[in-house]
Amino acid sequence: MLREVVIRVLADANVLHSRTLRDWALMLNVETKGELFTMHYTEDILAETIATIRRRHVNLDGTAITLLADRIRTSMTDRIDRYPLRQDSPVKDDKDHHVHAAAVAAGMDMLVTLDNDFLRLADEATDALPYEIICPDDFFVLIDDSDPRATRTTTLKQHGYWTGRGVTNLAVQLRRAGCPGFGERVANHPSPRPLLLTRRRRPSVRGD
């Protein structure tokens, strides 16, 4: 990934419905300000994301679902609106055909996904595609290679949020989400040092 070329990225629903992967993807997209990559979505992908989150958290407040959907929309670069279904999808599962159609129609450079139907395609199939298929771990490592400042800044923000909630090891979160390589990168970025406050001694006033 070269800084001179802005990479157009489509994030699959299986990336967005993971709290850890979603937060890192969206925060890095905002932090890099479109100078390194742009992240895109479709209403199909967002609907699948929200449906999965709802199945996992049946008691989640409806307001929280609405706010989450809004946050995803506002943190993305753009929405893909026009993507007619195609007959040349490289995966057999017809429920994933809309992902391929959107990637082709919008001229995406990368599809970030955890779907093994995409990730395990034969070389002949991937070579024929106009976009690259990449897992989140490799994608985040590419971002760190290209813009370590963005990773460092996002790491500090993540520390600030999660430390107050009792989570101090971001690398463990990332490993559990399937990103061991990026987790190691994050572990090597400096974490904020605790601020130690010391009380100043007041100067003593002595009488004459």
How is the topology of this model organized?
Elements: E1 7-11, H1 13-16, H2 19-32, E2 37-41, H3 43-56, H4 62-75, E3 78-79, H5 97-105, E4 110-112, H6 116-119, H7 123-127, E5 132-134, H8 136-146, H9 148-163, H10 170-176, H11 180-188
Parallel strand pairs: 1-2, 1-4, 2-3, 4-5
Helix pairs in contact: 2-9, 3-4, 8-9, 8-11, 10-11
What would you note in describing this structure?
The chain is of the alpha/beta class and 208 residues long. Helices cover 51% and strands 9% of the residues. It has helices at residues 13-16, 19-32, 43-56, 62-75, 97-105, 116-119, 123-127, 136-146, 148-163, 170-176, 180-188; strands spanning 7-11, 37-41, 78-79, 110-112, 132-134. Strands 3-2-1-4-5 form a 5-stranded parallel beta sheet. Helix 2 (19-32) packs across helix 9 (148-163) and helix 8 (136-146) packs across helix 9 (148-163). It starts with 6 loop residues before the first strand and ends in a 20-residue tail after the last helix. Mean pLDDT is 90; it is low at 193-208.
Can you write the helix and strand succession as a string?
EHHEHHEHEHHEHHHH
Strand content: 5-15%
Kindly report the average pLDDT value: 90
- Name the overall outline: globular
The N- to C-terminal Cα distance equals 74 Å
| Contiguous helical run count | 11
Cross-sheet strand order for the largest sheet: 3-2-1-4-5
Alpha-beta classification: alpha/beta
Q: Low-confidence parts, pLDDT < 50 over ≥5 residues?
A: 193-208
Cα Rg: 21 Å
Helix content: 40-55%
Main beta-sheet strand count, sense and barrel state: 5 strands, parallel
Per DSSP E runs of 2 or more residues, the count of β-strands stands at 5
